[in-house]
């Protein structure tokens, strides 16, 4: 029996410049990437480089819109009017669509970033604003946290939703992500990362910070491109997942 393939995506195009970016070394492991659209990080040069590398490795290209907050890397919730939020998300998708067109390619999906992603996971109004923005573009999939409000709203609106779990982040019992202010928020050790991936893929469960097991499913697994251990984790997964009848 063939190994089940794990679909991996990563947030890319977020480094200050190409020389400090992990994008080139992690892209060969990916099936999809989420490119920063300039509101929390990124610029035209970084987006063009990320698109170029993605095309080289046949990686699907997605927009990674955020709150307009470069100072905090889009990781702090902002209270914005509904219509403004729709406009902000649409603007970022449109911007990356133009960047992709320069290299004769198209977008495949949208995945919100940081605090926008986390807020939309629990807040219906934010989720609806994102879904309205994504729905205004043709044939774009929506990456959303499994069991989240965003996933439900997207599915209810007939968007194609790709449910996501994280390789390098820890969870609470309610499947919310542990705050980055907590020293245990980020998974840096490959051995811990593979336990999380195998648990989700084989048992549809995850071990939250509080202990026990919680049900979860994933169509795609995200690793953060700005995680300095991303390449080491992905290399380890590639080498050791076949022992669990899984593969990248």
Structure description:
With 248 residues, the chain is of the alpha/beta class. The chain has one domain: Alpha-Beta Barrel (TIM Barrel). It is built from eight helices and eleven strands. It has helices at residues 23-26, 44-56, 82-102, 114-120, 124-135, 149-156, 190-203, 230-240; strands at residues 4-5, 8-12, 32-36, 60-64, 109-110, 141-145, 161-166, 205-206, 214-215, 220-224, 246-247. A seven-stranded parallel β-barrel has the order 2-3-4-5-6-7-10, surrounded by four helices. Strands 1-11 form a two-stranded parallel sheet. A two-stranded antiparallel sheet has the order 8-9. α3 (82-102) packs parallel to α5 and α5 (124-135) crosses α6. The longest helix has 21 residues, at 82-102.
What characteristics describe this protein?
seven-stranded parallel beta barrel, 36% helix, single chain, TIM Barrel, alpha/beta, 8 helices, 248 residues, two-stranded parallel ribbon
Question: Can you lay out the helices and strands and say which pair or pack?
Answer:
Blueprint: E1 4-5, E2 8-12, H1 23-26, E3 32-36, H2 44-56, E4 60-64, H3 82-102, E5 109-110, H4 114-120, H5 124-135, E6 141-145, H6 149-156, E7 161-166, H7 190-203, E8 205-206, E9 214-215, E10 220-224, H8 230-240, E11 246-247
Parallel strand pairs: 1-11, 2-3, 2-10, 3-4, 4-5, 5-6, 6-7, 7-10
Antiparallel strand pairs: 8-9
Helix pairs in contact: 2-3, 3-5, 5-6, 7-8
What does the radius of gyration come to?
A: 17 Å
Spatial strand arrangement across the major sheet = 2-3-4-5-6-7-10
Class, according to the CATH hierarchy? Alpha Beta
Secondary structure: helix percent: 25-40%
Give the integer mean of the pLDDT values: 96
Question: What's the total helix number?
Answer: 8
Which spans have pLDDT < 50 for at least 5 consecutive residues?
none
CATH structural fold name: TIM Barrel
Strand content: 15-25%
Overall SS class: alpha/beta
Distance between the termini: 16 Å
> Looking at this structure, what is the CATH superfamily?
Glycoside hydrolase/deacetylase
Main sheet overview: 7 strands, parallel, barrel
User: What is the total tally of β strands?
Assistant: 11
Shape: globular
Query: Which CATH architecture?
Result: Alpha-Beta Barrel
Order of helices and strands: EEHEHEHEHHEHEHEEEHE
Count up the domains: 1
